[in-house]
Amino acid sequence: MRVSLKDVAAHAGVSIKTVSNVVNNYRHVTPEMRDRVQRAIDELGYRPNLTARHLRKGRTGMIALALPELGNPYFAELAAAVIDAAAEHDYIVLLDHTGGRRAQEVLVSQGFRARVIDGLILSPIELEAEDLRDRTENVPLVLLGERHYDLPYDHIAIDNVAAARLAVRHLTGLGRREVAFIGARRGNSRPAELRVRGWREELTAAGLSSDEGLVATTDGWGHADGATAMHRILETGRRPDAVFAYNDPVAIGAMRALSEHGLRVPEDVAVVGFDDVEEGRFGTVTLTSVSPDKEAIARLAVQSVLARLSGEAPEPRRVWADYRLIERESTLGRPATP
Q1: Which of 44, 175, 203, 245 is 20 to 30 A from 193 via CA?
Q2: Is 80 exceeded by the pLDDT of residue 107?
Q3: Which distant-in-sequence residues (6+ apart) come within 8 Å of 149 by Cβ?
């Protein structure tokens, strides 16, 4: 039998309005009354009807999250973080896969789900400013990633140039002098451009070479792309003593290729990835990686959507999320055993 607010109120000996105030987390409830109602809720097993609650506010209780690559472990982990962050506010997340294609990103951004969602979090790859400038939907939109549009939408990102410089600085600080970059993208890719830029700036600052022979382009950003690109560099006769990869799957693929060429990681070639996905922590050689704060990105994105819905948001803003370098065996080697 479904437990109602009336049942909880009778059990706690309070009014239905008081129970409603507690369930909806209104601030003007005394701690004693909140505890009293919460005990009744727990004892009766009351579960609020979230759909009805959202409908009373003229909302659906759903947020859409549109990502370019659901098979990419970074985006899979980010999606999980967004789902968790939304659940804290009693929201459900609908996932859309754009494939990084402009047409699909335009379709999503123009609100083809507008009737069933309260807000949209979009990580675009090929979307252009004019596509958003013509947007007519009033569903709140929050952008993720490195494409900057100078338009009135909240934007959550990390500083990719600075993060790339941190990764390369780690390698040069270990005495590595020929650092390759794997994962420059053929075609339009703002994240890859920024990471290459950071790689080049840091090498230049260290007085080291950043010639094009050390840059390997890829068609994608998976394991096979990293392995193919690493093979291609080595087959030219170049022997870099370090690799900075666009992301962790590319780095893991590169490490496989290095092994096939008889090169050891990190003794012969140190490797740094980007995104700090779970897979990189459990390989035969654990992966040093730039770790964006995915939980913070997710939390900021959800909070931005909800702030827009409530009318409490300030002017649209660009927010920089934190990141750090997690140092592991692919650059430091295995710790000495006692």
Answers
A1: 175
A2: yes
A3: 129, 132, 143, 155
